[in-house]
Amino acid sequence: MPQDTYVQNIKPLDATFLAMQTQTAPVHVGAVLIYGKQAPESSNQEVFDPLSLLESLLREKLSSVEKFTFKLIRFPLDLFNPIWIKDPNFKIENHITRISLDPPYDSSTLCDRIGEIWQSPLNLNRPLWHFYLIDNYLEDQIAVVAKVHHSLIDGVSGANLFVQLLDLDPIVKYVPKEQESNDENRPSLIQEIVKNTTLAPKVVSQIAQFQTNYVINLPKTATKVFKSLNNLHKAYGAQAAKKPPLLFTAPKTSMNKAVSKKRTFSYVAFKMADILEIKNRFNVTINDVIMTICTNTLRNYLAETKEIPDSPLTALMPISIRDDSDKQIVDNQVSAAIVALPTNEPNILKQLQLVSQNAKNAKELSKTVGEKIFLDVATLLPINLQQIMAKSVYKLIASDTINPPANVIITNVPGPNFALYSNSIPLDNVIPIGALGQGIGICFAIFSYNDRINISILSDPNLISKTEAIPTHLNRSFEKLSTVKPQKKTRR
Fold it and tell me: Which pairing describes strands 313-320 and 442-449: parallel, antiparallel, or unpaired?
């Protein structure tokens, strides 16, 4: 890393995820990486310890991710947007921890531990990520839980980051370097600023640069936001009933109250070939199939709790706005769409048809309004104003004064369709982990890897009273959709 890479301005959308965070709704995302064991002879080492080898590899590779060595500096009253500054006290051991599961060391206990890990926010005084290595998962596998703040990555950049930490070759060609001893007398940030006389001016320069750019671009940004809002108004017009739902128009349910600190986690896995068969049979997208499975699951769950709303539930769906030139950049470049989920329709085939059309309508509306409207709004509003607005909204949600922003979060990120390895250790599976928002007590995160696709469920058990029922309903909904046949067109 160049010597002068000490300070970076935070990007507006990254700051938004900081503004959204509360003690009960931390905004971190991640994944569980499940590794299989490899035969000792393939490691080219006399003593083969897969967990230690994997830990050494992660220590070295993660230390080389520049953004992972930076921490946030926030200002009094958040008068200025935070800045990223290289942490002079960065120690990789503060971010990689070995932990053990309770008996019987299976997927159930792994999910329980993930729920516990996801309850607590990351330490905002350190680089905003942490990896947990599970040293006793099953008899022949290793689990790595990655927890990263959303201000660092979105789904696409997170997926690309994981790929960078892995390799395609099952033959070992890399041996991690021996870890250097840690200098316990590393200087504090203040000492670093005093020691490096060029650092303090750079901090001031970054703040001045951001504020100058903000003032200069304010008229342009405000015009773009006004144009997007005007396009939204025109798009609805007289046919508002046929348009996608908006934020804060979701029906009220028991799932949509102020969230607590508690989290439960579970997941189901499907064969990609089976999902593709359904996709091809009905000439829809993979996303349509997955969203229909989630829709049917939510309907069946709400039927058990006897509260199926008359109107469809709504899903908040992140949408990547990256182009090919910036797919490797570690940051947030996302928009979002609100998609109606036809939970008021009992027929799963009709659900699929409606989901497919609703998803198309939401994407068309996003293009009409402007795919970068969330980025423009984040650029227009400084973090202190965003925090004030967020707190006001959260209070209204807690008092049940307004409708929730959406009923559920559904995030779908395509992963590699080929096998990956870490120093000959095969990566068997990747299970995504999402985040909850205030007023949204359940999140479905979808990720495809190699020959399977996983749907994970993160929920607040205080809002989702029967958390164990959700995976069962997902499997039943998949089986139901697998057996239904397309309707034959009748001749007139």
Answer: unpaired
Q: CA-CA distances (angstroms) from residue 223 to 92, 147, 213, 405?
A: 44, 37, 16, 25
Which of 206, 237, 254 represents a domain boundary (last residue)? Answer: 206
190 and 246 fall within a common domain: no
How many Å apart are CA 146 and CA 228, to the nearest integer? 36
- Using DSSP, state whether 485 is helix, strand or coil: coil
Res 447: pLDDT: 95
Q: Residue 119 corresponds to which amino acid?
A: Q
Q: Which tens digits make up the pLDDT trace of 3-19?
A: 445 788 888 888 888 88
Q: What tens digit of pLDDT does each residue of 36-47 get?
A: 876 555 445 555
Closest CA to 380 of 209, 210, 221, 227: 221
| β partners of residue 313 | 341
Helix (H, G, I), strand (E, B) or coil at 434: coil
10 Å Cβ neighbour count for 237?
8
Residue 182 — very low, low, confident or very high, per pLDDT cuts 50/70/90?
A: very low
Phi, psi of 400 (to 5 degrees): 60, 30
List the one residue out of 463, 455, 413, 418 whose CA is nearest residue 437: 463
Q: 10 Å Cβ neighbour count for 451? A: 11
How confident is residue 184, by pLDDT bands cut at 50, 70 and 90?
Answer: very low
Does some domain include residue 239? yes
Instruction: Give the residue from 118, 58, 181, 13 showing the smallest Cα distance to 433.
Output: 118
* Amino acid type, 382: P
